[in-house]
Amino acid sequence: MFRLSALAMCCLAIVVAFPAGATAQEKVHIAVASSLRAPVDAIITDFEQQFPNYDVTVAYVASGKLVAQVVHGAPYALLISAEPRYLEALYQRQLIQAEPVLLGFGELVLWHPHQRGDVATLIAAADYVALAQPSHAPYGQAAMHYLQDQLAAEHYANKLVYGENVAQAAHRVHVGAAEIGFVALSQIVAMQVPQSDYTRLASAPLLPQAIALTAHAGQHRGAQLLYDFMLADGSQQTLVAYGYAATK
């Protein structure tokens, strides 16, 4: 019986795995603030259609957690934060290639399903008010600053329940664990929430979103391509469609 040598078997396996004309996809690992999930998912779908040789893997985390992971050696090639100062701290430690660049501006809103009234009335009527953890989530920090500016602490302090990030804060409202919650406008747009079920907070400042390539990006051409793609007009239009204010 004819037998293949070990070398021949190895070569055959390679041919089967990568038939003529096929190329292996390059993995591009990135970390993104959880508030940006919907638009970034859409942008990555467009990117992978245009550049099929690249496979983008995304970790969605709170911006502060994102930074901690990079400091401890997480091999992300690209980062998007809902607070530029987190990326600036990485730049000071030479963990990103250059100073972060603004990608867009997010907006804090109050989600109050099937409830009506101004913000003070809604908070007074609620048993629980959800927000992201202010210690490491920019939308949580923005929500806390808004509350401190608008209301006396006794009106809300005992009602606050925290999510690890703004996605978890929204989940608390979605499942009824909190009647109302401070979330990102992009989440509201993605969920197609009726305008009557959320309130835009005119006095709350917009949240700048920033992007940067890490020290690992030099090993990945795909990371640079994705970085440029994120800043291109088409991706900016996607961000605007999800409720972000453009930088241009």
Automatic annotation (TrEMBL):
Biological processes annotated in GO: molybdate ion transport
Signal peptide boundaries: 1-22
Key words of the record: Metal-binding, Molybdenum, Signal
Keyword Cytoplasm included in the entry's annotation: no
InterPro entries: ModA (IPR005950), ModA/WtpA (IPR050682)
GO molecular function, one term: metal ion binding
Binding site for molybdate: S35, S63, V166
Similarity-based family: Belongs to the bacterial solute-binding protein ModA family.
Protein name: Molybdate ABC transporter substrate-binding protein
Taxonomic source organism: Pseudidiomarina homiensis
